[in-house]
Amino acid sequence: MNEPRSSSSTLMLCTTAALLVLLGGCQTTPKTETGVPVEERTPSTSSTTTTGSSAGGVSGSATASTTNPLKDPRSILSKRSVYFDFDRYEVKDEFKPLVEAHAKYLSGNKSARMTVQGNCDERGSREYNIALGQRRADQVKRMMALYGATDGQVETVSFGKEKPRNPGHDEGAWAENRRDDMVYAGE
Q: What is the domain range of residue 132?
């Protein structure tokens, strides 16, 4: 037979059962929210184009890009060599826009620094080629100063015939070796 329960044990059983029901009822299923998809963007390739006109009536557009123009193959600034005729140090007309572009880059970026490295072909004595390479590098530096680069931004050095680009011994190789190379600090 069943024994009668005390009122305190019955009360405890009812309280426990009520708590279990209450806790079971408090459980909720998390809902997933749907939202607007996020677009991935990479800042290294983004660009912004601005078009407008000034009060003076001059109009045009400018493209600002986060890509480094010194490394962008579409930019003239990615080209770094000026070639010379045999035994000459005058900058040829075809390379003047290149020198001007680098000078204007330096003018607009006051913390940028460059070394112009003068080179020669293998003909001539070591001393003669060192002197000719220096005249070539100095000539490019003078042109850059005319376009706004400061004296402190451009250094010159001559390697003479010590660093040929092409190791050959014919006019094609010599033409490649008669050059100035523009090297920016940190590259």
A: 75-184
